[in-house]
Specification:
heterodimer; A: 327 residues; Rossmann fold; 12 strands; 25% strand; B: 12 strands
């Protein structure tokens, strides 16, 4: 077994919904509702699902950027949800996040050098001004930008370059684990491959572990070793990337895959599509039993009665939560 | 007298006047579409694909103006007719659906009232008849529980439902041309599949000609008979979808198809990215606009701009393929 870097056990992140004049809590959005995951050292775990399924909240809960409601997150065997402020600050050096929107995630009033330098200052990683300057130049070089650009402001860069700056900022603290939250979906199509290749190259060079969150299954298949599929706060299937795409078990995974258009007209014309009924269920009031049953083409009475557990289907590596998995 | 095609654009050129100067958003675009056809226009943001659609609809922003070329539709020259005549065509003969269904519906009116609006304006329907019409349209586009839904406000609709409502409004007058500008970009993939399925059905059952504008090559592959690829306000390649995808004759199309991860590819096949950034439309390079990013560029490409000419089965704007070179790895 490869060494686990991150273990998530029974993680729940619920957001209270307040109503009325006295703001009484009227319910909870169960964004993450009981998730178990392991991420091995050096691997890329892809996390896919539709908007509102809780994938971003799960990523942020693992980093403790939002405070989980219940559960455990072990990083190198230590439960980080138990850490106090000082311990958590030391732990923060080990983990970083890359955001979706490079236009919104960089402070327009800071130079690129200051953006990168800030992380170095907080963690006291550059004791002298000279060392700080060198480190900023190194970081820019690492993401394929000229080291002379440190004095410029974010608006002087294109979308692709800004995302490179966002990546450099994540790398500043020399993390071992990075959550990539939809890192390419705001970029022009012709730029996306540059950023994917950069992330892969950095992973090899710096031995990084990624949680790669995206709604685009083609991108996730390309970059991930294993893939987890989320639906309304739950992981419904998790498996090595190849197996998930060749033999999806959960009907939701099957329909997601069939919904992805392939840029090949002959293939597209022949493909059979599973067109799902209706919309994603609400995380405020999820259906009983299996949460996907309201849209599922294989649903039986049993699916409403109890929730299917995440069961192993293949050699201990492929798991799906479904009573009637696809053949 | 009617023109030979449903819609024909001939050398359409649209300028936007900005503080930094004049930007040529659309530069000499020519194409035709016939009844029942589905034509895809692909390109990245800023390539001029939406501006082409807005030029056809004459819905350009205040700073925009068609400076050259003609747009013929059925028996009219849209680029010349009076505004009130154009207004009669918009919504009745040509309908447009926009990317963002969240901002395209007015939040303070009931959805049925809005979707029935064309019926009230163009068919003199009274309020009850318009609501009845809207209910029928909701059923056609697959909105369940239509009778109740027409009485609801837009905020009670999900994104997919709103896009269905917008399509219902577009269809209310049975237009002969539907222009859909990134109709599924804001939607999740399973909802995207529903909407594309709906557009396919409508095209088949009503013979509505459709122009589908998108940046997603997969969507074009599954939906369109013919495709136009735009770059820097120009058409760089145009042809039958199968030809353009199986043997692209413009290096931009060629590179784009190699740079995107595909669901049917082997995992970890390396992606071949396109170098550089999309063009700065205010300071375009001389010669072919793609040459700074082109792996096939020769000296001539930076000096003279090629025209859009026949290369094998399609049209391509490229010196290299026009000279007979085949693009390959």
């Amino acid at each position: 077994m490869p060494e686990p870097l991150i273990e998530v056990r029974g993680l729940k992140t619920w957001f209270p919904v307040r109503a009325g004049v006295i703001s009484r809590v009227s319910g909870y959005v169960r964004a993450v509702d009981g998730v178990d995951l392991t991420i091995s050292k050096g691997e890329t775990l892809g996390l896919v699902g539709e908007s509102g399924c809780g994938k971003s909240t799960l990523g942020r809960s693992i980093l403790r950027l939002v405070e989980p409601t219940a559960g455990e997150v072990y990083f190198r065997g230590k439960n980080i949800l138990r850490l106090r402020r000082g311990g958590m600050r030391r732990m923060r050096r080990e983990m970083a996040i890359i955001f979706q929107d490079p236009f919104a995630s960089l402070d327009p009033r800071q130079t690129v050098g200051d953006i990168l330098g800030e992380a170095l200052d907080i963690h006291r990683l550059a004791p002298t001004r000279r060392r700080r300057r060198e480190r900023i130049a190194d970081l820019l070089g690492l993401v394929g930008l000229s080291s002379e650009l440190g004095g410029r402001y974010p608006h002087e860069f294109s979308g692709g370059q800004r995302q490179r700056i966002g990546i450099a900022r994540a790398l500043a603290v020399e993390p071992s684990f990075i959550v990539c939250d939809e890192p390419i979906s705001a970029l022009d199509v012709s730029i996306q491959a540059q950023i994917i290749n950069l992330l892969e190259h950095l992973q090899d060079q710096l031995h990084l572990t990624y949680l790669f969150i995206a709604h685009d299954l083609s991108v996730v298949k390309h970059i991930s070793d294993r893939v987890a599929v989320m639906y309304v706060g739950k992981v419904v299937e998790i498996s090595p990337a190849g197996d998930l795409y060749s033999q999806p078990q959960h009907p939701y995974t099957g329909s997601l895959l069939s919904a992805i258009p392939i840029p090949d007209p002959r293939l597209e014309r022949r493909r059979e599509r599973i067109i799902l009924k209706g919309d994603v269920a609400s995380a405020l009031d999820p259906p009983s039993g299996c949460r996907f049953r309201t849209r599922c083409f294989k649903a039986q009475p049993r699916c409403a009665e109890s929730e299917p557990p995440l069961n192993t289907v293949n050699l201990g590596v492929h798991q799906a939560a479904c009573y009637y998995p696809l053949a | 007298m009617a023109f030979p095609h449903l819609l024909e654009l001939d050398g359409v050129t649209t300028d936007l006047s900005l503080a930094e100067g004049t930007l040529r958003a659309v530069d000499g675009i020519s194409f035709v579409i016939d009844a029942g056809e589905t034509l895809g226009i692909v390109g990245e943001s800023g390539s001029g694909k939406s501006m082409t659609a807005l030029s056809i609809m004459r819905l350009l922003p205040r700073s925009g103006r068609i400076v050259e070329g003609s747009i013929k539709f059925k028996d009219k020259v849209l680029s010349e007719i009076a505004e009130d005549e154009m207004e009669a065509i918009r919504g009745t003969e040509i309908a447009m659906i926009f990317q963002d269904p969240m901002t395209s519906l007015n939040p303070v009116y009931r959805t049925g009232w809005q979707v029935g609006e064309p019926l009230r304006i163009h068919r003199d329907a009274d309020a009850d008849a318009a609501i009845a019409g809207a209910t029928d349209l909701f059923k056609q586009v697959g909105i369940p529980d239509a009778k109740r839904r027409v009485r609801q406000f837009p905020h009670m609709f999900s994104g997919g439902m709103r896009q269905r409502a917008m399509i219902a409004m577009g269809l209310s007058m049975s237009p002969s041309l539907l222009i859909a500008d990134e109709p599924t970009t804001a939607l999740d993939v399973t909802i995207q599949a529903q909407i594309l399925d709906l557009l396919r059905t409508l095209n088949r059952e009503h013979g509505t000609a459709t122009i589908l504008i998108t940046h997603n090559l997969g969507v074009v592959a599954g939906m369109c008979d013919r495709v136009i690829v735009m770059y820097a306000g120009r058409i760089v390649e145009q042809g039958r979808t199968e030809d353009v995808f199986s043997h692209p004759e413009h290096p931009y199309t060629w590179s784009l198809l190699r740079s995107i991860p595909r669901l049917d590819a082997e995992a970890h096949d390396p992606l071949l990215p396109i170098q550089g950034s999309p063009p700065d439309m205010v300071h375009l390079p001389p010669g072919c606009k793609f040459h700074p990013r082109c792996p096939f560029a020769v000296t001539r490409c930076s000096q003279e701009e090629p025209s859009l000419l026949q290369v094998r089965e399609q049209l391509a704007r490229c010196w290299v393929t026009q000279a007979g070179t085949q693009l390959s790895a």
